[in-house]
Amino acid sequence: MTPTPEENRARLAKLLVRKWLQDCPPPTTPAHTQAIEDAEAAQARYWADNNITPGAENVQTTGKVVASSSLLGASMSYADADTTRVKARERAAETLCLEARLILGLAGLNPQPPLVVG
User: What are the backbone dihedrals phi and psi of residue 67, each rounded to the nearest 5 degrees, phi first?
Assistant: First the structure.
């Protein structure tokens, strides 16, 4: 059975949060566990609210925004075709959103850079 878009977003949000936390000490309290779950939900909601399909190549929104058109030449261009916009949407599909980062940060779950001794 094919997963629904909501199930895909939830699964990928969980993976993205885990990736973001990979350099953190493991969660030790129920508050940490709750913060991780809240961050996963916030990330999935962010993608849904912005019509971002994580895990898809060349992430696109479902609709197109007309940037310009012409009547006799019958040409039309779309704002979504802009490579800058497409790249920004791809980054948004691969980067933890602000709300999720804030939730994790307030719970004390911040990635730690490697400690170099010597």
Answer: -95, -35
Task: Give which of 110, 59, 98, 104 is closest to 80, Cα–Cα.
Answer: 59
Provide the whole-model pTM.
0.72
CA distance 92 to 44: 12
Q: Match 């949060």 to its residue by tokens.
A: 17
Report the distance separating Cα 66 and Cα 99, nearest Å.
Answer: 30
Question: Dihedral (C-alpha) 79, 4, 20, 32: value to the nearest 10 degrees?
Answer: 130
Distances (CA, A) of 89 to 38, 81, 113: 23, 12, 27
**CA 100 to mean position of chain CA atoms:** 10
Per-residue tokens: 117: 């001794």
- Distance, in Å, from the CA atom of 61 to the CA atom of 29, rounded to the nearest integer, reads 38
pLDDT in tens, 45-77: 999 999 888 877 554 555 555 455 555 666 655
Nearest 5°: CA angle at 92, between 88 and 93? Answer: 120
